[in-house]
Description:
Elements: H1 30-40, E1 42-44, E2 53-55, H2 67-70, E3 90-98, H3 104-122, E4 144-149, H4 151-156, E5 187-193, H5 196-210, E6 214-223, H6 256-260, E7 277-286, H7 288-291, H8 296-303, H9 340-343, E8 355-356, E9 359-365, E10 371-381, H10 388-396, E11 405-415, H11 427-430
Antiparallel strand pairs: 1-2, 3-5, 3-6, 4-5, 7-10, 7-11, 8-10, 9-10
Amino acid sequence: xxxxxxxxxxxxxxxxxxxxxxxxxxxxxxxxxxxxxxxxxxxxxxxxxxxxxxxxxxxxxxxxxxxxxxxxxxxxxxxxxxxxxxxxxxxxxxxxxxxxxxxxxxxxxxxxxxxxxxxxxxxxxxxxxxxxxxxxxxxxxxxxxxxxxxxxxxxxxxxxxxxxxxxxxxxxxxxxxxxxxxxxxxxxxxxxxxxxxxxxxxxxxxxxxxxxxxxxxxxxxxxxxxxxxxxxxxxxxxxxxxxxxxxxxxxxxxxxxxxxxxxxxxxxxxxxxxxxxxxxxxxxxxxxxxxxxxxxxxxxxxxxxxxxxxxxxxxxxxxxxxxxxxxxxxxxxxxxxxxxxxxxxxxxxxxxxxxxxxxxxxxxxxxxxxxxxxxxxxxxxxxxxxxxxxxxxxxxxxxxxxxxxxxxxxxxxxxxxxxxxxxxxxxxxxxx
Length: 432
């Protein structure tokens, strides 16, 4: 198979000197198919429904793929994609359990298939086998696929000695109302894209690739605001209407890699986890009916930030450092002692830091008439015992937000470093 065309950086448009219709021999790329469709199909006229349908322009004048669809993320690299990639508009999280009788050999073959599929789809190509054509007309749309291993994977494959200590089960928290059927799993896959059909196409391909080697344990679907929906780039909002992610660690910070990724040397982690990270995945139900009964002022006191701008209640802009000691004229703390933003600050938790990269979810209305909606919380860190755990323990002891949320499922996964060229994800574990 001819190597796929060169992928571009995570947030850039394709290089002009890279052929947009390059693909393996005998396989049309999705971008090439888009051009073909533009030459022969019909397109909605510029005046929309009022003008009806108008013939598409000729092939010579075909409109190029919009940047939203053209953006591609590299599969191969030091770290797996989908960790530092900008938030994507659509996501699928799915956990698998190895089938009865499947072990290390079957797991290696599965990760090899998944890696091949991920590389092809992220480059805007079709799946190698039985492509469903769901994404036929689209470009890569910043598609990413990220793979991880759960605690149970290592016993199933006879690799217990290679299981990291950091993958020990998370402790129980008082806010937990966990559904075990929707928690943990042998294998975990995160799929993200800026187009819903591209994301679904990848999900189907991954499920089909699993074949008889693994079965789906649970699946969750999420979304974020689409890129370009706001007048200027800004921090995302969650379903409570709050700006969420203001104090996320940034790759430009000198200690970012140290806090988020396992070092290549000098670590207690096994060698196969070099340049990897640990993902904590929590389905957090938001009790929106109760939340929305609060006044805006009451909501801001719960969070500790202005709802409109994300600025701390102590003043300034979204990025202004919060003044935890500031009081009002009556001597009351401006940022309440149990405000969520106060409790979660790294400097209030021994420097504990994690990179939050969530998706919102809405799975319909319950029988009692309330929305089944909230946050698919995903956080990345070099060590969950020094990242997620201390912060969650402190939240357990008095977070004002806890009244309005419920943790319904949980998982912890070891996500190895990125695959090098001609290597599949997890190869250093499974063949080491």
